[in-house]
Amino acid sequence: MDLSAFSKDDFDPKEWINKTFQCPEAKENKEEFATTIVAKLQSFIQEVNISLEKTAEQVNQNIPRIAREIEVMQNEARLLQQQMGSVKGDVMKVEYDSSQSMQVLLQIDHVKSCMQEASKALREADNWTTLSADVEEVFESGDINTIATKLVGMQNSLEILADVPDYHERCMRLESLKDRLEVMISPQLISAFNTQSIVSDVGLMYMKIFKDIKRLNTLQKHYHTFQKEQLLKQWKQIVETDPDETIMDWLNNFNDLLLSTWHTQMTCCQQLLPDIPAVQVLSELFVDVLTNLDPSLTFCIDAGMKLHSNQLQCLIELKQITDRLAKSLEISIHAIEPKFFSDPHLILLVKTIYAPYRRHIEKYDYLEEQQLLSSLKALALSEDLEDSVRILGDSLSKIFCLIQEAESRCHQLTQGCGYVSFLRALERFMSEYAGHFRCLLRLFRSNMLPDKNSIDSWAAFQQSLHTTQVIGEALMQLEGLQVLYIGNVREIGRKLGYYSPTEENSVNPFHAYDDILLSISAKRELQQMINMLQEGKKR
Questions:
Q1: How many helices (H) and strands (E) does the chain have?
Q2: In the predicted model, what is the mean pLDDT of residues 192-217?
Q3: Which of 43, 273, 450, 493 satisfies CB 3.0 to 4.6 Å to 498 for a cystine?
Q4: Where would one find coiled-coil regions in this protein (predicted)?
C-alpha cells in the first residue's frame, strides 16, 4: 500500500481510495480487501501516535536546556554590544587625533612652503642685485649671447620679486636693458635678412634670444619692416626700369615677385617665428605692402585704362593677371593647411588683392554698355526699305553673338557676381537695338503713304513678313537667354552660399567673389535678385 500520497499538499481521499481499489485483490473480494485496508490504516495511525508521543516527550525534556542556552546567548550579545561601543569610541578618538595631527602637518607644510618662497625670493633678490651690478660690464663686452643670458636671469628674478616695493622701477630698468640689446642686435639682424642667412644657425640664435627675453613680436616687426621695404623698393624698380613697359608688364612682374617671396619666406617664417602661423605673417606683410605701393595699383590701373582704346578689355586682362596670383596663393595655402582659409588675416589679404578693381566693377554696367553700343554703331539702316529689312535680318546673329561675348566678359571680370550690372547694360543695349526696328516701322509707314510709289503693296507685304519673322526669332532667342540667365544666377547664389547660412560661412575666401569684388550696395542688389528668383522657383 502506497502511503506517500498522504504527505502531498493536494491529497484527495476519494482519488486515493479509487486508485487503491483498482488492484486485482480488491476486484476479487472488495469487502475483505476493505477490511484489510482499514486494519492497516489503524495500525499506521497507532504507530504515528506513538511517534508523536515520543517526540513530545523529547521536546518537553529539551525546553529547559534551550532556554538556558538562549539566556547565555543574550548575555553574550549584550557583552558584544558593549565591546562594539567601546571600539567605536576608540575609533572616533583615533580619527579625531589623526585629524588634529593632519591639521598640524598641513600648517607645518604651509610654513615650510612660505619659508622656501621667502628663501627663494631672498636668493633671487640677491641674484638681481648681483646681475644688476655687472650688467654694464656685460654690455660693454658686446657678447650678445652673454647679455641675453644675463637679461633672462634678471627676468626670472623679477618674476619672483613681484611684491617688492620697487617692482615697477625694476621692470622699467629691465625693459630699457632689453631695448639696448635689441638696438645692438638690429644691424646684425638686418644683415642676416639681407644675406638670406636668417634661416641658418645665426637666424635661429636670434630667434632664441628674442623668444627668451619675451620679445618675439618685436622680431616679427623687424622681419615685417625689412620685407616690406624690400618689396616696395622692388615695385618702384619695376615701374621705373623700362618706360616702354605697360601696367600689364608691371603687374605680371610684381605678382611673380610676390609669389616668389611667398614661397621662399614660408620656410623662413616657420623657422624664425614658430609660434605664429606663417600664413598669418605673410598675409599681414602682403596687405601692408599692397596698401602702401608708390605709385599705387589703383593709380596705375586707372592710368593704364585711360591709355587703352578698349577700357573694359584692359580691365579684364589686368584682373586675369591678379586672378592667377590669387589662384597660386590658394593652391599654396591648401597644400599647407586648408583651415587657414577661415583666417581673418588671409580674408583681408584676398580683399586687398582685389581692392583696386572694386571701383571699376561698380561702373561695369557703364563700361559694358559703351562696349556694346560701340559695336552697334556699325548697324545703320538705309532709306531703302528692302535694304533695311535685310540689314536687320543679317544683324540678328551678330547681336546675340555680342550678347554672348558680353556675358563672357561679365564672368571674366566678376565671376558672375556682376549679373545685375550686366543685365542693366543689356537692357539699355537691347533698347537701343529695338530703336532700329522702330525706325524700320517708320520707314514702312513712310513708304505706304498714298503719294509714295517707291514699292508696290505686294513687295511691302513680303518685307513686312520678313520683318515679322526676324522679330519672332529675336523674341525666341531672348526667351532662351532669359531661361539661361535665371539658371546662371541661381547657380551663382548656390556657389556663394546664399541658400544656406552654413554654406555661406564655409565659402573659400578666394571664391567669395561678392565680398571681394562688389560694393555693399551691389552685393545687396545681387542678393535681392537671387532671393527673388528663388522665391519664384518655389511658387
A1: 20, 0
A2: 74
A3: 493
A4: 56-83
